[in-house]
Amino acid sequence: MLPPLPDILGNARVVSLPLRQRFRGIDVREAMLLEGPEGWTEFSPFVEYGDEESSAWLAAAIDFGWTAPPPALRSSIMVNATLPAVAPDRVAAILDSFAGCRTAKIKVAEPGQVLADDVARVAAARSHLGAEGRIRLDANGGWNVDEAEHAIHALAAYDLEYIEQPCATVDELAEIRSRVKYMGMPIAADESVRKAEDPLAVARAGAADLLVIKAQPLGGIRRALSIVKQAGLPVVVSSALETSIGISMGAHLAAAISDLSYDCGLGTVSLFEVDVATEPLRPVKGAIEVRRVVPNGRVFHDFAAPIERDEWWRARLARCYAMLEATAN
User: Residues 105, 214, 229, 285: which is the catalytic one?
Assistant: First the structure.
């Protein structure tokens, strides 16, 4: 049962938070925070997403705010640092902002850049982390199969843990996985899970060695756990550039997964100049706590979105709610 729409919107707040570094093409992250009987929750699909895709994010927000999460199997989650597509001279400072993280996820295949830029960035990260550090790459589907094969050969010398979404489609992932299998290079799927009509198609096709799971895009903790169980592959729980409240949802998802072999992508609050929480969920000794987050009341004043953006988010939520309501009926 969905809670009444007025109850969802009653304590809703929209914030506009600056990022330390341009990431995913944005300098400011907007998010809508909601308070349910179980605590604060977050509705923050990216602004370019349509209502149908965004409705899954609302389902996740309602699930986390109005229903108690599954029992936690651990009290903290090891997380990775996230390195945007920056120049090599920026690498050390950004990695150092993720306190104690032993793993770095590095963005590659950035529009407007070339493979040489990726190689320089990855080389700088390996130099900074040393031989014991773990490096994984995220191409966000930016290469075709031939480009991906060429890039993987160029970057494999830096001892990579895996490459996330090197190509856009499930068929392309299956092809590149077959081409580089002899190298022992694992392929991870992200967009092919969270943006797919059938999030299990990539597992059935044998197109990935592991899955990147995100609570909001998949419709909430319980639906994500169902996908993990059905897929039968190792998973990495990751964020969608959320505030500490959204990260808390991801942490509760990660805490409920029995086999969590990889560091999770839940350290991204470190990419924000300011967070909504009194005690942000930033990494400490490479890990974040599994806990509910209470927002700092000042952020609602100091970083409140302009009134027109607040109204835009409320209208968006109402449209997504109508879609969930229609499905429920």
Answer: 214
- Specify the length of the chain in residues: 329
Angle at 81 between CA 190 and CA 208, to 5 degrees: 25
Residue 37: CB atoms within 10 Å: 10
Which residues 6+ apart lie within 8 Å of 198 measured at CB? Answer: none
Residue 214 a catalytic site member = yes
Average pLDDT, the chain: 96
Secondary structure of residue 90 in the 3-state scheme: helix
Whether the predicted pLDDT of 180 surpasses 80: yes
pTM, 2 dp: 0.95
Give the full edge-to-edge strand order of the sheet including 26-36.
Answer: 13-23, 26-36, 39-43
**Model confidence at 208: pLDDT above 80:** yes
Q: What is the pLDDT of residues 276-313, one digit of tens each?
A: 998 999 999 999 999 999 999 899 999 999 999 999 99
User: What is the arithmetic mean of pLDDT over 196-201?
Assistant: 90
The Cα–Cα gap between 294 and 283 comes to: 17
Task: Give the C-alpha separation, 294 to 8, whole Å.
Answer: 17
For the segment 208-232, the average pLDDT, to the nearest whole number, is 97
d(CA 257, CA 72): 8
Give the whole-angstrom CA distance, residue 329 versus residue 1. 10
- Three-class SS state of 122: helix
Distance CA 201, CA 156 (A): 27
Could you tell me the domains of the chain? 5-67+297-328 (3.30.390.10)
Catalytic residue among 105, 107, 195, 285: 107
